[in-house]
Design a protein that fits this description.
The chain has helices at residues 24-33, 35-38, 48-60, 109-122, 139-147, 176-181; strands at 9-10, 14-18, 65-71, 77-87, 93-100, 129-134, 151-162, 165-175. Strands 1-2-3-4-5-6-8-7 form an eight-stranded mixed beta sheet, sandwiched between helices. By secondary structure, the protein is α+β, with helices and mostly antiparallel strands. It has a single domain (9-185), classed as Aminopeptidase, CATH 3.40.630.
Length: 189
């Protein structure tokens, strides 16, 4: 079994690390186990070739960063969090996408993992703002964004093409200042 990449940060339950090509077998097995949980919101890669292409984009593209949320107890991959569309300069922003795997859902692992990714993005990565775009019916994803201090900023009709149709999305965001001054506590806005 290949050695796993080291954690970039750790909490009480999980650590986060970058995804690697070597994670393909476990990642795709978890995706297949989680099909009912992900549908109709997410369609992560289910085969090793598709995973290799997915991971290579996250590894090789400086406008993307891919993280795995791993259980500290046993190293199992609990979910994934990607920062896409990273823009530097005056914007210092990125767009988050994430998904839990079925065995980890409802256990607080993704809440801790997302908090670690946000801290990493605002710390070592030097970003200022992160956005999450969520379909209005995806209550679990909205609850995760809210728990992690993101505020609702707007509504985008026909925002992303998912599962054969253009889907509306709510826009949630957090800034580095919100995590420093406690403004994230009022995320109902």
């Amino acid at each position: 079994m290949p050695e796993k990449a080291p954690h970039l940060a750790e909490g009480a339950l999980v650590g986060i690390r970058h995804c690697t090509l070597e994670d393909g077998a476990e990642f795709t097995a978890r995706v297949r186990e989680s099909k009912d949980l992900h549908h109709p919101w997410l369609f992560p890669p289910t085969g090793t070739d598709a995973y290799a292409a997915y991971a290579q984009r996250l590894i090789g593209d400086p406008t993307k960063a891919g993280f795995l949320v791993c259980e500290r107890e046993n190293g199992a991959i609990a979910g994934f969090i990607n920062i896409n569309n990273i823009v530097e300069g005056g914007f210092l922003s990125g767009a988050l996408g994430y998904g839990a795997f079925a065995h980890a859902a409802g256990r607080g692992l993704m809440s801790e993992g997302l908090a670690l990714v946000v801290a990493h993005a605002f710390g070592p990565m030097g970003l200022h703002r992160l956005e999450i775009n969520v379909q209005p019916g995806n209550a679990a994803s909205i609850a995760l964004a809210r728990r992690c201090g993101f505020r609702r900023e707007g509504f985008s009709p026909d925002f992303l093409h998912i599962d054969g149709a253009w889907r509306d999305h709510e826009r949630w965001a957090i800034t580095a200042e919100m995590t420093r001054d406690g403004a994230a506590a009022d995320s109902s806005r």
